[in-house]
Design goal:
This protein has ten helices and 41 strands. It is mainly beta. The chain has a 21-stranded mixed sheet that branches.
Length: 778
């Protein structure tokens, strides 16, 4: 269920002070109370179900029931209730003054935002029922008899094996103030030349939280700590004492921003967002105009990015967990904590049932000993994202109601939000080479600071965009109108192309199993994540992730048109047709709209190393078959050709990629051989060579350097309006989608380089669809 309401009240007052002075004043208030969730979000379901609810939160808890052998996994989850109440007040004043050849405009804008956002994170509970109490005990395996228990039955009995409630801050009360001042001068230098000169200054306060419940992780002396705003102590933020004690027990410390020398509001406030604007228009002759402009624009940090981190950063965030089995001794056996045996051989105690089985938030809380996630912001060097844009356009009027436009548009973005690797695990290979030892199996031990998995962000990202555009259009005349556009675009960037998510994970999610950096938007790697651990500067490492955008095709053509068919009275054919005949054959129109674009930039599988140029020209691409299959493939780029593949036309290109290899046996199987020093032979269990997985490295080979297959589509319509008297209009239309029934090709496999040409796997678009419609208007 989603409820969205908007109330907007505005008062606009315009006053003409004199023939040359005009003032416009706008005062407005916006209120948007939004809710997403279910109709049951405000019901205390925990009290009805008997499940723990120590924080008194309404809503349905998440419950899992698992059958024996994992044959069934039931989940009852209403998701998280979420409310957002936005209130903003805006005042704007704009003045226009005309004097001689000048038209001056200047004014200001002020806006205050109060954005109250609820983030519950299942404070109402997340619980689990495994098949244990209802399972039979097997002395032979010292475990349960297979397929003998039911988690769902235990849910009905009220015998959980895992109970948890998440402490979090509920509502965040975010606050921000925006001030903007601008001035422009439009100068008519001559009848042919006009200049526009302007300057804008924007000032955005950093987001703050009305109750100071916003914390910022930082890194003093290679240990992660947390800052609170100003001189506000952590104990004043309302977190349970048990939560603070639990985080302190795993080594987390905290102090105030004032004591650490940080900005009182945690983030630097930016006061240098000055944006000059320049524009010019020149009429070269009676049918040609040249226009150009340049401007700088600033974008403050979107609130959603900040919220994603603030709602999960410790220590004002902790899951309280109870495992009813874990702390129970096995009767008649050795004392100790046996997870899983107790419910198999003992009748459940009264305290094992709900509601006595509960979650205690006053004592015994434990923070995770490892794998704690945290979002780190380089707040001292914070900045607003900046875009510089410029363009040059030539417009020319052609004969017969036709015109053309040629444009170049350039953009350079800097100070963009950038993910960078911080405290990632060292790849196994580099660790073995550096120490001469086999790496520990626990990935956490390969981090500089134990127990912390970090998403780090700063404002060092950059992007460049160059675009050439051409347009030809004809106004409707003589029964014909059309438009045709061509665009060439080249965009490269280091930051997340979407620009709206912190979902990018670290360069390697764990030694031996991570991503190697296949697309732009990857985090900037640390030196030890590059093969050989070169001594590269941050700027050099950031250059490694400067890639072509994978979402924008380099070439794009679109067109549309409409044409009156030349049949009927006054037309080329049957110009003298009778009225009944003209009613049938006259007045028909056809229209079309279509698009063609080249393929998107793509890259070789990032688990492979490029040894040369992988591109193959279109005329040299071989057609390939594989043993035991009649399907045909095209070798799009020089990847690793599957064993037994045979070229039926053309010649297979030599692979220009390989796996990491060799391993200790000299084979290329995605391993790296590390000869170990004799002195460490005993420490490594007698091993003299270690097969280190290549995973975890950032692969610096060229990425997103291949253009995939293009695509095109054309839709066509035939239609006619039938007038019935003066009140009725009937429209018949026959619409043909994908008129030519053309299939668009799939992209090639990123490892083999082969593009599947088989009909059942080929088309990315829908087949031709025909739609007939008859519409009556009166």
């Amino acid at each position: 269920m989603r409820n969205y309401e908007t109330t907007n009240v505005a008062v606009n007052y315009t006053r003409t002070i004199s023939p040359n002075w005009l003032n416009e004043l706008l005062v407005g208030v916006l209120r948007e109370p939004n809710h997403s969730g279910t109709v049951g979000d405000f019901v205390d379901w925990d009290s009805k179900l008997g499940t723990p609810n120590p924080f008194g939160i309404t809503g349905w808890p998440t419950m899992y029931a698992i059958e024996s052998g994992g044959n069934f996994y039931g989940e009852w989850d209403s998701d998280n209730n979420k409310q957002q109440h936005l209130t903003s007040e805006t005042i704007e004043d704009n003045v226009t003054w005309t004097h001689s050849r000048h038209t001056f405009q200047f004014g200001f804008r002020g806006r205050k935002e109060q954005n109250n956002i609820e983030e519950l994170q299942q404070a109402q509970g997340q619980h689990e029922w495994d098949p244990a109490y209802t399972s039979l005990y097997s002395p032979q395996s010292n475990g349960s008899v297979p397929d003998s228990g039911s988690g769902f039955a235990e849910l009905l009995l009220g015998l959980p094996d895992y109970l948890s409630n998440q402490y979090n801050r509920g509502f965040f009360y975010f606050r921000q103030t925006e001030i903007g001042v601008y001035g422009t001068d439009k100068i008519k230098l001559s009848p042919r030349l006009t200049l526009n000169l302007g300057l804008r200054w924007d000032d955005f306060t950093p987001y703050s939280e009305a109750r100071n419940r916003m914390v910022l992780p930082y890194e003093p002396d290679q240990k992660f700590a947390v800052l609170t705003p100003g001189n506000i102590p952590m104990t004043a933020l309302g977190a349970p004492a048990s939560a603070l004690a639990a985080w302190a027990a795993v080594g987390l410390t905290w102090q105030t921003a004032d004591s650490a020398g940080y900005p009182s509001k945690l983030f630097n406030q930016i006061h240098h967002d000055f944006g000059p604007r320049l524009g010019a228009a020149y009429q070269l002759n009676h049918n040609t105009v040249i226009r150009g402009s340049y401007g700088i624009y600033y974008v403050p940090e979107p609130l959603n990015l900040l919220l994603q981190s603030m709602r999960t950063n410790p220590p004002i965030n902790l899951r309280y967990v109870t495992n009813p089995w874990l702390y129970t001794n096995v009767p008649g056996g050795a004392s100790g904590k046996y997870f899983g045996l107790y419910p198999l051989i003992s009748a459940p105690a009264s305290t094992d049932y709900l509601p006595p089985a509960t979650v205690n938030i006053n004592a015994g809380a434990q923070a995770p000993s490892e794998g704690n996630g945290v979002t780190y912001w380089d707040a001292k060097n914070w900045n607003d994202s900046r875009d510089q844009t410029w363009n040059l356009t030539v417009e020319h009027e052609l004969p017969k109601h036709t015109g053309m436009r040629l444009s170049y548009i350039g953009t350079y973005g800097d100070n963009l939000l950038q993910n960078y690797a911080l405290n990632d695990p060292e790849p196994d290979y580099n660790y073995a080479v550096r120490t001469g030892l086999i790496p520990p199996s626990d990935t956490n031990q390969l981090r500089g600071v134990l127990n912390w998995s970090v998403i780090a962000n700063n404002h060092t990202g950059y992007s460049r965009d160059h675009s050439f555009q051409a347009e030809v259009h004809r106004q409707f005349a003589g029964g014909v109108a059309f438009q045709a556009f061509y665009t060439f675009t080249r965009q490269l960037n280091t930051d997340d192309p979407s620009g709206s998510s912190l979902s990018s994970t670290s360069v390697n999610g764990g030694a031996g199993s991570g991503s190697l950096g296949g697309n732009g938007g990857e985090p900037v790697p640390e030196n030890f994540e590059i093969l050989g651990e070169p001594d590269l500067s941050y700027a050099q490492r950031e250059r490694l992730i400067y890639f072509n955008s994978t979402t924008i095709p380099p070439h794009n053509v679109t067109f549309n048109g409409i044409y009156d068919l030349p049949f009927g009275k006054g037309k080329y054919f049957a110009r003298s047709a009778s009225t009944p005949l003209n009613y049938l054959i006259g007045g028909w129109q056809v229209a079309t709209i279509g698009v063609w674009h080249s393929g998107l930039w793509m890259g070789v599988n990032s688990g492979l190393v490029q040894t040369g140029n992988v591109r193959i020209s279109a005329s040299q691409r071989a057609t390939v078959t594989r043993p035991g299959s009649s399907d045909k493939y095209k070798q799009w780029f020089a990847g690793i050709t599957p064993s037994g593949a045979v070229a039926t036309s053309g010649t297979l290109a030599t692979p220009m990629v390989r796996e990491a290899g060799p391993n200790c046996e000299g084979q290329y199987v995605g391993q790296l051989a590390v000869p170990l020093p004799v002195a460490n032979e005993a420490a490594n269990g007698g091993q003299m060579c270690y097969d280190a997985p290549f995973g975890g490295f950032y692969n610096p080979a060229p990425r997103d350097n291949i253009i995939g297959p293009g695509a095109w589509n054309d839709d066509f319509s035939l239609y006619k309006h039938f007038k019935i008297g003066e009140k009725f209009d009937m429209r018949f239309a026959a619409d043909f989608f994908n008129f030519t029934n053309h299939p668009n090709d799939n992209p090639p496999n990123s490892s083999s380089g082969l593009q599947d040409l088989s009909l059942q796997n080929q088309s990315l678009n829908s087949p031709r669809q025909i739609q007939l419609s008859l519409r009556l208007e009166f």
